[in-house]
Amino acid sequence: MFLNFLKVTLRTLYREKVYAIINIAGLSIAIACCTILGLWLKGELTYDQHNKKYKQIFRVECEYVEEDGKTNATAMTTRLLGPILTEEYDEVKGFVRFAVIEQKLLLRHEDKAFYWDHTAIASNSVFEIFDHDFIYGDPETAKTKPFYAVSETFAKKYWGNENPVGKIITREGYPAIITHVFADLPENSHLRYDVLCSEEIPFFTEKQDAAERDISLWWTGYYTYLLMPKDYNVHDFKDIADSFYKRHMVASGKAVHGGTLGWDVWLQPLADIHYNSNSGLKHDLPTGNKNYLYGFAAVAIFILLVACINYMNLATARAAKRAKEVGLRKILGSDRLRLMLQFIGESLFFVFIAMFIGLVIVEVVLKLTPLSQLLGKNLSLDFSQQPLLIAWVIIFSFLFGLMSGIYPAIYLSSLVPVSTLMSDSRSGKGSVRMRELLVLVQFAISICVIVCTLIMSLQMQYLYSKSLGFKKENRVIVPLRTGNVIDRYPVMKKEMLKNSSILVVSTCTKVIGDVLDGVMIPIENNNGTSPLTDVNYMDVGNDFINVMGIEMAEGRDYSKRLITDVGNAIIVNEALVKEMGWDQPLSRRVAGNRVIGVVKDFNFGSLHRLVSPLIINKLPNKIGNYTQDRDKMIQYLVVNITGEEMPQTLSFIEDTMAEFDPIHPFEFKFLDDYLNELYFSEQRLMKLVGIFAAVCIFISCLGLFGLAAFTTEQRTKEIGVRKVMGASTMQLIAMLVRNMFYLVMVGAVVASLAAYYAMDEWLSDFAYRININSELWVFLVSALIVVFVALVTIAAQSFKTAQSDPVKALRYE
To answer: pTM for this one?
Structure first.
C-alpha cells in the first residue's frame, strides 16, 4: 500500500510541476522560518537551566521601607546575608555571592591589552552551586583556595591554544595569576562573566562583632544566591525572612537610621530571573521582555498558518482535476479512510521534502546573513551537540504535514463517485467558501504584520526626533580612567580648548543614558522637616550644564570662581521640585546643601520612563588626597565639538589623551550613538518583524499565484464566452480579481482590530509614545499594500488567460 501511495504521489508531482514547486517553496520557507524562531525560543525559554541544580538555586531579593512608607526593592543584598542565613537556618544548604564590576577593565599580558565588560568577584562556593566546564585547572582547588578564573574566549585572546594556567595578567599594574580556565558560559545565562576572581574580603566572623555585623546588613552591593532543598516552596521562606528581621534588623535599623524601618527578603527561582523579575527591581541584571517571546511565537504561528493555508487552498482548488481519480478509486473499492491516508500521505511527502530544503535554507541564512545578530543569539543547527533537535524537527514537520493535509483529505475523500465522473464536475460551493475564508485569513495576517512594522517605525522615529531637554549631537564621550588621570583633567581641558573645533569640555561620573545611582538622603520639605527620600544623582564638573545644552528653570549653574559650591550647593531638576511640592526651591536644602538652581527636566534615561527626581552634584577639580581605589576610578570627558573637520578633531583628542594617559588605549563614543543603544531591542524587533512580514507576504503571493492559475483555468470557458460577447482584457481581469478585493477589505478590518490591540500594548511600555489614534492612515496604507501585491499577482496570472484565443477557450475541456 505504501509503495502504491508513493507511486501515485510521484506521478502527481511530475504531472503538476507548478503546483509542486509552489507548495514545496512555501512549505520549505515556512519550515526554515519556524526552525530559526524555534531555536531562538528554545534558548530564551531555557535560561540558566544548564545548571544541574537550577531548581534548587534561588536569588535573594530585598526591599527596604522608607520612613514615608515608600518601598525600595533591589536585586542586591548585603555581603553578609548569605553566610548568616547558611549558619543559622538548616533549610539553607549553601550560598554564593557575586560583586559585579560595572566598568570595563583593562587587562594586560605583556604587549597585549584588551578591555573586558563582564567581570565579577565571587565566593569560593560558586563552583559548588553553579556549573562550570573547566578546560584547565583543578576544579577542587577552586573550592578551597583563591582563584582567578577566566573564560575560554579570554584565554584564547591572549594565549591562543596555549594553557594559560600560571600566566600573569595585570590590571592597573596589579598582577594576578591565572588559576583556571572555564568554557564560555551559555548565552542564555542571566549572569555572564569572562573573568571571575575569588573575593579577598574576610568573612564576617573574622573581624566584626555582632553589633557591627548587624549594622552592615543595611548596606547592599552583592547578588546573593542560596541553595535550597529539592522541591523547596519559596513561600516557606517568609518565616525565615521574618525571623531574620526580628533577630538582626530591628535593633540595627534604629542604630543606623534612628527609627524602625521595614525590611523584607524573598526568593526568586534561578530559571525565572530572566523573564519574571519584578519590573520595579533596582540593580537587576539585564532581563528579557516577555512581549518579544509572544511576538516571535506569534510570527512563527502566522508563517505556519499562511503556508498551511496555501497548501489547503491549492489542494482543494485542484479538486476538479482529482475528482475523476477519487470517483474511479471509490468505484474500484477504495474506502474513504484509504483515500484520506492517500491525501495526507501526499501532504507529508511534500512537507518532508520541504523539511530538507528548509534545513538547507536555515544553514545558509544563519551563516551568510546577519539574522543571528538581529536575534541577539548565536544560533546554529548543530545536531551533534543537540541530538534531540533532529527529533523535534521531524515531529514538527510531521504535525505540520498533518495540519496542512487534513482538510483537503477530508474534502476530497468526501466527493460522490457519480458526480465526480461527470465531465462538468467542479469544486463545490463549500470548498469555494472555505478557500475564501482561508485567503481572508492570509490577507489579515499580512496586513497585521505590515501595520505592526509601520507603527514600530513611527514610534522609533518619534523617539529619535523628540527633544530630550539637552543637545546630543556632536558630543564626544571619552573615559578618564584612574585617579591620576582624573587629577590631570584641568590641564587636559585647557589643552583641548586650544583647538578651535572644540567648544566646551566638562566631566561627569555617569553618561546620560546610563542607569544613574540612587541614594536615600534627607531632603527638606515645605514644613521644614527633612525625610529620607530616594533620588537619582549624578556628579558633574564645571560647564556640564553648558556642554550639554541643558536649560535652567531658575537659579544659577555652578560657578568656577566659588569654591564653596563644592560640598555646599546643589542643583535639582523640576521633577524633584514637583515631588517635594516646593513653592520656593532656592530656599530649600538637600542633605544640608543649599539648592542654588533648578534645571528644566531632561531625559537622563530611556524614554521608556518618565523623568524622575534628580540631584546634580558638583565634582571637585581634583580628587586630592583620596587614595582608596584610585586605580578603579572612572569619569567621563564630555567634549562639545563643532562637527567640522571631524576626523582631524578626533585625532587631536586622541593625541591629547595619549599625552595625559599613555597607559590606556584611546576610547570614544558619540553621545547620540550611545543613546541609540537604549532602543536597540526595539530597533531589532522592528527589523525582524519587517523581515518576517515580507516572508508572510511572499508565501501568500505564492499561494495566490497558484490559486489564480487554477481559478482562471476553471473559468476558461466563461472567459471565452465573455470575450466573444465583447468584453475587453481589463474587464476580464477586473472580473477575476473583484472577489479578492472584497476579501482584502474584510481582512483589513479584522487585521486592523488585532494590530491596534497588539501595538497599543507594545506602546504602553513607553512613557513617551505616539498617539495610535492619530496614525490610522497606517491601517489604510497597509491594506492598500496588500491589495496592490495581491491584485498584481492575480492579474499577472489572469492576463495570459484573458488574452487567449476565445475559440480555443470554448473548446477547453
So the answer is: 0.77
